[in-house]
Amino acid sequence: MSFYSIRAIEQEDISFLWDMLYEIRSLRCVREGKALPSRDVLQTPDLARYVRDWGHKSDRAFIAINAQIPIGAAWYRLFTADNPGYGYVDDNTPEIAIAILPHYRNKGVGKSLLIRLLEQAKTDGYGHISLSCDSTNDNALHLYQKLGFEQVGVHIIQNWIMKKVLR
Asked: Where does the N-acetyltransferase domain lie (predicted)?
């Protein structure tokens, strides 16, 4: 029996997506030994596009819950060539974002969330899914490659664009 459960996001969980977006942005600072950014960084267009105006027909998200407390989230959105995300491939490939609270990392939560999200993408009829990963994030890269993601490009020097074929 796992110590967490996974469920689809609800309207009241959207603020947690913002928290997880901040975790994503902060993780690189932690790895590089830099100070954490102000939460104002979430209002930059490059980051805000991952959560702002949540609720489009193609938006999907799941959260992991431990003792009724959210501990991680994985979600995807469609972006366009005019408004691409960091892992943009094309207008018909949703892009994943995922974050787990530090205390719960490396315990299978991220893998479970990703598997659930990949199943949802298949159900929604997508043929591919993408993401962006810092090439220095060995744990994440290992997980993504294990789940069948392959590098298809580079964004901003050390961020790999990765894509998975959904079968």
From this structure: 4-167
pLDDT tops 90 at residue 158: no
Contact 115, 160 (CB under 8 A): no
* Fold adopted by 5-165: Aminopeptidase (3.40.630)
Q: What 3-state class would DSSP assign to 159?
A: strand
**Domain residue extents for the chain:** 5-165
Give the Cα-Cα-Cα angle 138, 143, 147 (nearest 5 degrees).
145
Amino acid at site 129? I
- What residue ranges in 9-158 does DSSP mark as E strands? 60-66, 69-77, 95-100, 128-134, 150-155
Pairing between β-strand 69-77 and β-strand 5-8 as defined by DSSP bridges: unpaired
In the structure, what pLDDT confidence band is assigned to residue 1 with cuts at 50, 70 and 90?
Answer: low
With contact defined as beta carbons under 8 Å apart, do 129 and 78 qualify?
no
Q: How far apart are CA 59 and CA 93, in angstroms?
A: 12
d(CA 38, CA 54): 22
For residue 11, the SS3 value is helix
Question: End-to-end alpha-carbon separation of the chain, Å?
Answer: 28
